[in-house]
Amino acid sequence: MEELEKAVEVLRTVDRITVYTGAGISTESGIPDFRSPGGIWSRMQPIYFQDFMASEEMRRESWRRKIASDGTFAAAQPNRGHRAIAELHRRGLCSSVITQNVDGLHQASGVPGDRVIELHGNATYAACLDCERRFELDAILAAFKADDTLPVCDHCGGIVKTATISFGQSMPLEPMRRSEQETLACDLFLATGSSLVVYPAAGFPALAKQAGAKLVILNREPTDLDGIADLVIHADIGPTLGEAVGID
Ligand code: ZN
Fold it and tell me: For the whole prediction, is pTM greater than 0.90?
C-alpha cells in the first residue's frame, strides 16, 4: 500500500505530533459511535444539560441510561490504533492526544492522563459540577441501583454528574485552549476516526495547516478536510496505524 509507505516516511521526518481522535478509533474496540445514524442519539432523545440541572427525574433518567450503557465502556479495551499512538508518545514523538471520545482508552493504552485532552469529558468517572471533585462510578451506581439515590458531593453539596460534556453544556475552556496550543506547536497533525465536519473537530486540522504543520488524515470514510491534507488514507485505523508505527 503506497499510502502506508508515505505515512512511514512522514513519521520519520517529524518530531512533534499532535493526534486528534474521534469515535472511529474506538468503534474498533466495540464502542458504538453514539452520534452516527443508527447510534443511540438517533433513537433516543439526549438529555440536555439544562434539563438535567432542573429536574431530579431527569437526573434519575440520566443515571438509568448510564447503567444501561456502562457495560460497553467497562468491557472495552484499547485496540492497535490506541497502542500505536501510545507508542508514538513513548518514543517522544506524540506530545498530546486531543480526543472527542469519552471512553478513557488513550489513558488505558499508556498515554499519561495529562497528555490526553478530552473535549467531551470522560464517561468512566463522575465529577461534582461545582467543585470538580472526582467520584468513581461503582459506588454511585450501586447506591442508585439500591434505592434511586442521586449522588451529591460530600465536600460541597453540589450535583454530581458523569464527567462528560452533555448536549447544551458549554465546551470546557481549558481543554479548548490547550488543544489550540498543541495544534499550533506541532509539526504533524494526525487526525483519525473523525469525519471532521463539526466544530471544533473541523477547526484544529485547518489551524495546524495554516501554522505550517503537515496534515495527515486517516479515516475509513472521506472527510470534509481531505482536500487540504498532505496525506489521506481511507482504511481501518488500528491495522494502518499499527503497521505505520511498527507495533503488533
Ligand atoms: Zn463539590
Answer: yes
